[in-house]
Design a protein that fits this description.
0% strand; mainly alpha
């Protein structure tokens, strides 16, 4: 007879999948693109966006999963993604009005909002889905 301490499934927990924090990576990417687009302006908004960017880089590591990569590898990978996206955002800002119409300036923020909503949906679905006992 198995007890709760001997069985993962009996406790209602499903073992985690290999896709670790994929939705937060997309949110990080589009937030960094928006940060890179507005990097030339020094304002309180950019300060808040930088703090949020640092939180999105670090905090998803602490989401509960069974297998976590090393923290240094996690931060290094997420920092490369954020740096690349900031560079893309700065390049995107340079193309506005020249290559792209000026109305496209809100595109990174729009994509950020959409990916954040999808990420919230995925997280809440993971928390609230029914887990059948076996």
């Amino acid at each position: 007879m198995k007890t709760m301490s001997h069985s993962d499934v009996a406790g209602g927990e499903v073992p985690s999948e290999k896709g670790f924090a994929v939705e937060t990576t997309f949110v990080l990417f589009f937030l960094a693109v928006e940060f890179g687009r507005t990097l030339t302006k020094l304002s309180f908004d950019n300060f808040l966006m930088a703090v949020t960017l640092l939180m999105v880089i670090v905090l998803p590591y602490f989401l509960s999963t069974d297998e976590k990569p090393r923290f240094a590898n996690w931060i290094l990978g997420r920092t490369f993604i954020a740096g690349f996206a900031i560079l893309l955002g700065a390049l995107f800002n340079q193309t506005l009005g020249v290559v792209l119409p000026e109305t496209f300036r809100l595109l990174p923020l729009t994509l950020l909002i959409v990916t954040a909503m999808l990420g919230c949906y995925i997280q809440f679905y993971g928390f609230l889905k029914l887990r059948l006992a076996q």
